[in-house]
From TrEMBL:
<dbReference type="InterPro" id="IPR006913">
    <property type="entry name" value="CENP-V/GFA"/>
</dbReference>
<dbReference type="Pfam" id="PF04828">
    <property type="entry name" value="GFA"/>
</dbReference>
<dbReference type="InterPro" id="IPR011057">
    <property type="entry name" value="Mss4-like_sf"/>
</dbReference>
<comment type="similarity">
    <text>Belongs to the Gfa family.</text>
</comment>
<keyword id="KW-0456">Lyase</keyword>
<feature type="domain" description="CENP-V/GFA">
    <location>
        <begin position="4"/>
        <end position="120"/>
    </location>
</feature>
<keyword id="KW-0862">Zinc</keyword>
<protein>
    <submittedName>
        <fullName>GFA family protein</fullName>
    </submittedName>
</protein>
<keyword id="KW-0479">Metal-binding</keyword>
Length: 141
């Protein structure tokens, strides 16, 4: 089992994950574009493997997929960390850019490509989905 750690821009919130990484994807949905001004690189982990120091703020919204998504972020600097979806209970999406070693994760797929802006740099060597991918199976920790 691997270990990952990460933090927000200001350092107010830190996290540690003790689990192997699940699927990693670059998401081009409109919500991810709004929180990052680009696509976001995300990796899925078992929710119970994530230990957070600090208290993230949260925002709940119905996503393009129709699922209720709870996004967590640093209330001080605005860094976005995690998303939990009603469509994948027990799994949490972690924004790879907040990892202390983001290169430890390599995306395998672009998702919601149909929503990407015309200027998006989409890696053609990765699998692509015009909309959402099939939900992953819960990972064992």
């Amino acid at each position: 089992m691997k270990s990952y750690s990460g933090a927000c821009l200001c350092g107010e919130i830190r996290y540690e994950i003790k689990a192997d990484a699940g699927p990693s994807r670059i998401c081009w949905c409109k919500d991810c574009q709004r929180i990052s001004s680009n696509g976001t690189v995300n990796v899925i982990f078992p929710s119970d493997a994530i230990r957070i120091t600090g208290t993230p703020g949260k925002h709940e919204k119905t996503a393009d997929s129709g699922n209720t998504v709870t996004r967590r972020f640093c209330s001080k600097c605005g860094s976005h960390f995690f998303s939990d979806s009603s469509g994948r209970p027990g799994l949490t999406v972690v924004r790879a850019g907040t990892l202390d070693a983001p290169s430890a994760i390599k995306p395998a797929m672009n998702i919601w490509v149909a929503s990407a802006p015309t200027w998006a740099c989409i890696d053609q060597s990765l699998d692509q989905s015009k909309g959402p991918p099939l939900p992953p199976s819960p990972a064992k920790t």
